[in-house]
Amino acid sequence: MGTLADTNDRAALVRRLRAVEVESRRRWGRMTAHQMLCHVADAFRMATGAKAVSHDVTWFNRTVLKWGALHLPWPPGVFATRPELDALGGGTPPTDFASDLTRVESELESFVGFGARLGARPHPLFGPMSEKDWMRWGWLHTDHHLRQFGA
């Protein structure tokens, strides 16, 4: 099971991020590859509290959905994106592809560096999460979107 807490897993994910090109075609969804980079960066900023998002924590989300999200591969369209993270809505709009790629890498490293402080941050759908849960979520979320673009 991949996790951003593992340096090898993290390095492999960054290599995959760097393989994404502006022309990379999506396999599902509505985002472009460029919008995906901004979305993933926004999600890391959400996790550290640098980007405020609305919450929709329910019993189902914090138990059943959270368990599935942390233990199973994410199929296309399984999780709703919070409006503030939607690349086609309230998320950060793309600017320069190379700069946005650098930003997502930087946000990933900031997220990992946040470490134990992540345990104090609730997820907007899953509620309370440990640092271990957050590191798994970060890997799964990024992996999901990289698979979306064949990376």
What does this structure look like?
This protein has 151 residues and is mainly α. The chain has one domain. It has helices at 7-19, 33-48, 59-71, 97-114, 131-148. The relative contact order is 0.25. The mean pLDDT is 93.
Question: Could you provide a short overview of the structure?
Answer:
It is built from five helices and no strands. With 151 residues, the protein is mostly helical. The relative contact order is 0.25.
Characterize the main sheet. none
Helicity level:
40-55%
Topology pattern, helix = H, strand = E = HHHHH
Using only CA atoms, what is the Rg? 14 Å
Count of folded domains: 1
Number of H- or I-type helical stretches = 5
What is the molecular shape?
globular
Low-pLDDT segments, ≥5 res: none
Strand percentage? under 5%
Distance between the termini: 18 Å
Average pLDDT confidence is 93
Helix-strand category: mainly alpha
Number of beta-strand segments? 0
